[in-house]
Structure formats: structure tokens, C-alpha cells
Amino acid sequence: MEAKTLLLQQWASCLDERDWFPPLEKALEDITFEQAIWKPTDGAMNSIWELVCHLLFYEKRFLMRFLGETANEPQAENNESTFRLSTKTVDNWKKTKQEYFYVHRELGKILAKSEHEDLYRKVPGEDNSLMLELKSLAMHDAYHIGQIVFLSKMQGAWAGKSSS
User: Fold this and answer.
1) Which residue range forms the structural domain that includes residue 20?
2) Entry pTM
3) Is 164 inside a domain boundary?
4) What's the rounded Cα separation, in Å, for the pair 153 and 144?
5) What is d(CA 108, CA 131) in angstroms, rounded to the nearest whole number?
6) What is the helix (H) or strand (E) element at residue 49, kind and residue range?
7) Residue 160, phi-psi category: left (phi > 0), alpha (psi -120 to 50), beta (remainder)
8) Does 161 fall in a domain?
9) How far is residue 31 from each of residues 72, 87, 118, 120, 153, measured CA to CA in Å?
10) What pLDDT digit, counting tens, does each position of 15-65 carry?
């Protein structure tokens, strides 16, 4: 299997195609605002919304760098600040999800249109090529999707959904 095909499959499985783990669209499908901001009482975990903000930060930053729009890339003092929420409203929760879905799809389009040599060219502002950066982002997504599913299960919001 060609590397591009493999990565396209991996990229899609993070958003909207079932694989070994549920895609993020499915995981977030019925998550209410209250469930999105909920945290376990010990406070050791981020909320679902904070996790989506974190995923969005890194994908959007990569997209802006890839497009050469570094003036528009999100900024953060450190990794911890990438989990910060905007004002907590139902509309902002919906906007965060939609922006993440949009950015993820835009990166998928870039990957789909890329020629073989483009996949291995270093992306300005990044340490690696398009191929390696998107592979890393997909693995990052999968890790945090697992946390989102776990938080959903803790709240009883996963009832009736299959685990994979």
C-alpha cells in the first residue's frame, strides 16, 4: 500500500471513518455543552471541550504554517495553554467543534492533492515533512479521542455506542 493512501486512511479514521477507535465526529455526536465542560471531581483530567481545543490548536497551527499564513496561526505560551477554552457558551462549543472538523478536512484535502515529492518536503516552521507531521497529528488525535471516549463513558454519555 502506498504511504499516501495509508496516511489518508489514518487521517479519515480520526474524523469520520470507523476503524479501531471511533472517529471524533462520532465521539462528539451527542455530547452536550454540559458534558463537554465536565471534569472528574479530582480535576486531574481535561474536559472534552478542552481536549478538542488542544487538537484544534495543533492542527490549525500546522495548517497555517503549511499555507504560509504564520501571522494567523494560533499562539500559546506552552502546551498547557492549548487546552484553554473560549467563553463557555453553547454556541462557542458548537463553533469549536465545527472549526476542528473544518481544519481537519482542509488538511485532508492538502494531503489528497499532494504529489509524492510534496509528501517528503519539509514544511516551513516544522521539523518534518508533510507526511511525518500529518502522521504525528493523526496519532495525537487518536490518543486524545481515546480520552474523549473515556470521559464520555464516565458521564454515561457513551451508552449504546460501540467502542470501535
Assistant:
1) 3-154
2) 0.93
3) no
4) 14
5) 11
6) helix 48-67
7) left
8) no
9) 29, 18, 37, 38, 11
10) 998 888 899 999 999 999 999 999 988 878 999 999 999 999 999 999 999
